Amino acid sequence: MNITKDIRYIGVNDHKIDLFEGQYTVPNGMAYNSYVITDEKIAVMDTVDRNFGDEWLENLKAALEGRNPDYLIVQHMEPDHSANIALFLKEYPDAAVVGNAKTFGMIDAFFGENLCRNKLVVKDGDELSLGAHTLTFVFAPMVHWPEVMVTYDKKDKVLFSADAFGKFGALDREEDWACEARRYYFGIVGKYGVQAQALLKKAAALDISVICPLHGPVLKENLSYYINLYNIWSSYGVESEGVVICYTSVYGNTKKAAELLKEELEALGCKKTVLTDLARSDMAEAVEDAFRYGKLVLATTTYNGDIFPFMRQFIDCLTERNFKNRTVGFIENGSWAPVAARVMRGMLEKSKDITYADTLVTVKSALNEESRSAIKQLAKELCD
User: Fold this and answer.
1) Domains and CATH numbers, the chain
2) Contact 231/200 with Cβ under 8 angstroms?
3) Per DSSP, what are the bridge partners of residue 356?
4) 64 neighbors 43 (Cβ within 8 angstroms)
5) H-helix or E-strand containing 211?
6) What residues contact 299, with CB distance under 8 A and at least 6 apart?
7) b/e for 234-270, b at 16 or more Cβ within 10 A?
8) Bridge partners, residue 98, by sequence
9) pLDDT tens-digit map of 258-271
10) CA dist list (Å): 293 to 98, 191, 222
11) Checking DSSP bridges between strand 12-14 and strand 30-32, what pairing results, if any?
12) Are the C-beta atoms of 89 and 95 separated by less than 8 Å?
């Protein structure tokens, strides 16, 4: 696939994988992207996952058309992008490996010392001329590893963006970009919003026509749409107005309370309500929704003097990704000594700019007139 006249795609699709990074479901597979820039000198942008080394090497050879590459540029050392560095150097031992100081430290850690005979160590802002194409290296530490850098091609105005602007899903499957890109972002990059914002500021100074990420499709049209979403996500802004209700329920009574809240919100004309059973749903999708919408209700039982395990896991997932700038309400259930709301609020105490709903719903075993009334009041408060 030609990206531009001189830039070709040589990546692969993975439909064998069940869990990406050992935890994220990927029903439509994954793409591991790699590119070749052909000029007076030839640069290869990253490798692919170890299970696809032979396929990738064949793609590379086809793109080279009998020539030898001069450079392998390593933007990101995560193994789904770097695993075939040794395979590449076995085939092309005279090629120089391009990276920063942290890159080569990680290469030594993964492959042992002395793998790279020819090294080109670059600094932030350094340039590399291939002929007509000049590449500028822009460091993007902690988006989402410390060695990450992105690369800008001045001639074709292409940003090779590493894991930024990536998404779940193989390239031979059609699906909405935003949904799986959002789930990917908050699952993998979400903790590093400050660093992603810094990268966006650097990118704003570049004249970009094409974005080539290491996962997901090449972005060529309406780039402002994708950049705007990335700006919202990385600044922890509210993308869509709505209320997300996440619950756990042992015997169904907390579920009934959550469902009643959804009904009350819809009756009041709330734009969007999302109801999620944390024990039976994809946790990454629940996290995605919590960051997408502006209001979140957590509903769970008191369990062993604490809260139900799936709710604890969910809140941990939020806080480790710097959950902030949201309105949060609570529904707690307990047959005796209910403490769930206090525990949940305590878990969120380090989250910044959280507005807590005044109405606390306490269910004692099952819904009654008092708790039903509190749910009505909470719905009214959330819809105001």
Assistant:
1) 7-234 (3.60.15.10), 240-383 (3.40.50.360)
2) yes
3) 328
4) no
5) strand 210-212
6) 245, 246, 247, 248, 249, 254, 257, 258, 261, 330, 331, 332, 333, 361
7) bebeeeeebbbbbbbbeeebbbbbbbbbbebbeeeeb
8) 73, 120
9) 999 999 999 999 98
10) 41, 17, 23
11) antiparallel
12) yes
- CA-nearest of 84, 76, 78, 50 to 162 is 76
Contact status, residue 97 vs residue 119, Cβ threshold 8 Å: yes
User: DSSP 3-state assignment of 156?
Assistant: coil
* Amino acid of residue 60: L
Distance of CA 162 to CAs 145, 215, 324, Å? 10, 8, 26
Q: Which ranges of the chain does DSSP label H, i.e. alpha helix? A: 53-64, 79-82, 85-91, 101-111, 177-184, 193-204, 223-234, 253-267, 283-292, 309-319, 340-347, 369-383
Q: 46 pLDDT band (50/70/90 cuts)?
A: very high
The two tokens of residue 160 are 């090779």
* DSSP one-letter code for 186: I
* DSSP characters over 66-115: T---SEEE----SHHHHTTHHHHHHH-TTPEEEE-HHHHHHHHHHH-TT-
Predicted structure pTM score = 0.93
Token pair, residue 9, equals 């795609």
Residues forming a β-bridge with 293:
240
> What pLDDT, in 10s, does the model give residues 319-371?
999 999 999 999 999 999 899 999 999 999 999 999 999 999 999 999 999 99
- Whether the Cβ atoms of residue 48 and residue 32 lie closer than 8 Å to each other: yes
